[in-house]
Amino acid sequence: MSNLHIQQQPTEHAFFRCKLPPRRALYNAVCACLFGLSSGIPMQTQAAEIDGSCLPALIFPVEEKLFNDQNSDERKVEASRLLQPDSNHYRFEGDVVYQQNQLQVKAQSVDYDRNSRQAEFTDGVELQSKDILVSAKNAVLKDQPKGAQLNDTHFQLLPSRAHGSSKKIQYRQEDGQAVLEKTTISTCPIDKQHKTDWFINVDRLTVDQSSRRVIAKDAVFYFKDVPIFYSPYFNYPLDDRASGLLFPQGGSYKSLTQTDPSQYLKVPYYFNIAPNMDDTLTLMPMTQRGLVLDNEFRYMGKHKAIEHSAVINLSFLNDDLTARDGLVSTDSNGDLVYGKKQAERWRGTISARQNWGHGFSSQLQWIEVSDPHFFNDIPVDIALKNKTQTPRFARVDYQSRNFSAYATMFGFLKLQNAPTNYEKRPEVGFNFYQAESWFDFNLSGQAVRFDLEDNPNSDVVGNRYHLNPSLVWSKQKTYGGITATAASQMVKYDLENQPSDSEPTSAVPQFALDAHLVFERTAQIFGESYRQSLIPKIQYLYVPYEDQSSQPIFDTQERSLDFSNLFAMNRFSGNDRVGDDNRVSVALTTQFENAQGQQVADFGIGQMFYFADRKVGVETSPATITDRRSDYYLKAGIGSPQLYISSTLLVDENDGSLQGSSSRFSWQPSPKQQLLISHYRHPQNSSLNDTVSAGGYSQLDQNWQLGGYVEYDLKAERLYETNLGFRYDSCCWAAEFVAERTQLENGLYNDGFQMQFELKGLSSNGNRFKNDLANKFNY
Fold first, then answer.
1. CB neighbours of 706 closer than 8 A, spacing ≥ 6?
2. Is the dihedral of CA 456, 460, 465, 467 positive or negative?
3. CA–CA gap between residue 271 and residue 57 (Å, rounded)
4. What is the spatial distance between Cα 322 and Cα 341, in angstroms, rounded to a whole number?
5. CA atoms of 685 and 201, how far apart (whole Å)
6. Count of beta carbons in the 10 Å neighbourhood of residue 541
7. At CB < 8 A and 24+ separation, what contacts does 483-489 make?
8. Following DSSP, what letter does each residue of 539-556 receive, concatenated?
9. Where is the LptD C-terminal domain (predicted)?
10. Which domains does the chain have, with CATH numbers?
11. Residues 452, 458, 460: CA angle, nearest 5 degrees
12. How far apart are CA 513 and CA 173, in angstroms?
């Protein structure tokens, strides 16, 4: 201001400046200190996005050309008239516009005093920059000491359009403080009655740039003009992430012994410890049981080439119900069995990843609980509420250009009614690959120790050593190709509790010859042009019979249904059995690609023709399979923005009945409607599993959304799970209610519900029902 230069023209340069408080200081920090702004994304903050049609109107038009001006040092003032009452005073009148550093201030009059180095803007003051719009009754800018004061303001943050008002805004540059008095903040549009659905009133808000802190006094949150939360004082950091309360969630949960479900309320508090470290503590009072303390700690770190991250969950409850009645399970008849009385119940989990550099990496996924019934009773991890077991492991990997190796400890945490499964303690393996000009060589191997937890010294345990060399010759052209494969499956055991040979050994060679042709043409479908490929494929596979009945079954089973099984080298998964085969597999597939080269459809049919009986089975004394032809394998796949189908069917060649199914269907005509269906029937034994799942959601009107999910066993005629969800979603707040019924044991069901509430612009819990639906169908 000391160098204000006036020329005899209505448009001149004025050398005064105003420094605005940062965007976060005016809005994000205040909101975050009340309710928190952290998300479920590790080490980041995710602000809730607002639909463009829901954005509040601008308090006055934005001049975009102002933000495109890169001349940051030029300052200018425009006015209709320039008056100079004396040598120390200047007065600009009529549509005054001041611009500097992508900052613009408009007013009807500006008075500038050279002695006090002060400029006063009056009558329709409008200030805009890249981050904020402010209208004020008047504004005073000072050069000595540097600062500003704006009275009776209405401000709006860009681009979120969060808006508010303040009786007075004072800024002092020497101490880097902005003080807002009688401030109101909201992200909601203003309705016809000039009201918003929610807003926050703060009596006094101090933003301190030097200490990077925000101090709010007497803050009250209003919803529908009703005060629902008050805080007399908050001291809060200006950094990106924010400590504070997150949105609570409520619901009900019922275990085996409860005739009435327990009601619960989750109240999480987020701690921003460091840029690479945070913690969320959740208090969850449950009726009948007591207070659950649930804590999640997250960490990320990097030191030179070493990167590592970890998530640690701890939960604790002094359970009044099990202290009184004892832990409960069901027997083989489905009757309740009461066990020991136990008050202290807990769980601990750790999920960690490390990249050590030089090709080494590691993973850890471990979980422990106080008792097998913990997740059935306590809703800290809904995904495990009906699980009988969950995997846990520790693994180290090494990867180089053509060599990889690993070592792992793999097992299961046994939960309620857990089956008996072998655990790998440990497993080490390697793979070596070498590509030459006319063949590819691959060598893989592993050594595994199979153990059983609490083994009564009657089940077979021991070591298995496996080696699999293979040699592949391939010749590929655009019109087709041929591939020859020679491999060997060699296995050796060192067993305990085995009545016969304790060191069974086998070496089974495998030979396969594959060939295919590719025919292409342009096809017109519904007026659209597609490139169609017709691909016939044939494979001859020969695997001689080798008696493997003395070998145990540790991890081997029949393959799940997939079209690629037509050309698999082994009809079993795992390494305990190699199926004998002398067969030819044929298949005919057709694919469609659009003009962009994206595959939009894929159909296929195939069958296997056997020249010999199959003697090797999973059981030690299997029945010989004498069929000369397999059932038909059918596949269909359609992928488009609206429709997705992925289906593999096994159809009886004699009567056309369905023998196996692995099908998924998704139809989404718009972002507001979706239908999902899946069906799975075990291809070898339909009595094991014949389950259909269906779910979807639909936007009923502008605000209401309805969703549902059902899982049903067609063979057992049993309903596993049913969910019904309602969601109200407006421009600035949302509420969701999900009712669910889940089968427990022997016809008993858990009837419960969950509720959540969120305010747009503060933070987002997301659409829980839609997220759970996607997880159930693995979309």
1. 697, 698, 700, 725, 726, 727
2. negative
3. 34
4. 6
5. 65
6. 23
7. 483/512, 483/513, 483/514, 483/515, 484/512, 484/513, 484/514, 485/510, 485/511, 485/512, 485/513, 485/514, 485/569, 486/510, 486/511, 487/511, 487/569, 489/570, 489/575, 489/578
8. EEEEE-----TTS--SS-
9. 345-703
10. 11-243 (2.60.450.10), 460-632 (no CATH)
11. 55
12. 80
Decide: 247 and 756 in contact? Cβ < 8 Å.
Answer: yes
**pLDDT given at position 36:** 31
DSSP codes joined into one string, 210-278: TTTEEEEEEEEEEETTEEEEEEEEEEEE-SSS--EEPPPEEEEE--TT-SSPEEEEEEEEEEEEETTEE
Structure-token match 């619960």, residue found: 264
Tokens of 20: 């605005």
Two structure tokens written together for 625 = 């399979």
**What are the contacts of 83-86 at 24+ separation with CB within 8 A?**
84/6
Give residue 213's region: left, alpha or beta (phi > 0; psi -120 to 50): beta
Q: What is the pLDDT of residues 579-635, one digit of tens each?
A: 999 999 999 999 999 988 899 999 999 999 999 999 998 876 677 889 999 999 999
Strand-pairing partners, residue 519, are 534
Beta bridge partners of 675: 667, 696
Please, are residues 714 and 692 in contact by the beta-carbon 8 Å criterion?
yes
CA 584: distance to chain centroid? 44
pLDDT at 407: 98
Task: Give the list of residues 6+ apart from residue 59 with CB closer than 8 angstroms, or none.
Answer: 133, 135, 154, 155, 156, 163
Q: What percent of the chain has pLDDT over 90?
A: 46
Q: Which two tokens stand for residue 196?
A: 């918003």
Separation of alpha carbons 284 and 378, rounded Å: 10
Task: Write out pLDDT tens, residues 118-173.
Answer: 889 998 899 887 777 889 999 988 877 778 889 999 988 777 787 889 999 888 77
Cα–Cα distance for residue pair 761/199, rounded to 1 Å: 11
- State the SS3 of 319-368: CHHHHHHCCEEECCCCCEEECCCCCEEEEEEEEEEEEEECCEEEEEEEEE
Measure the CA angle with vertex 773, ends 257 and 573; round to 5°: 85
4 touches 112 (CB < 8 A): yes
Burial of 707 from C-beta contacts in 10 A (0-12 / 13-18 / 19+): buried
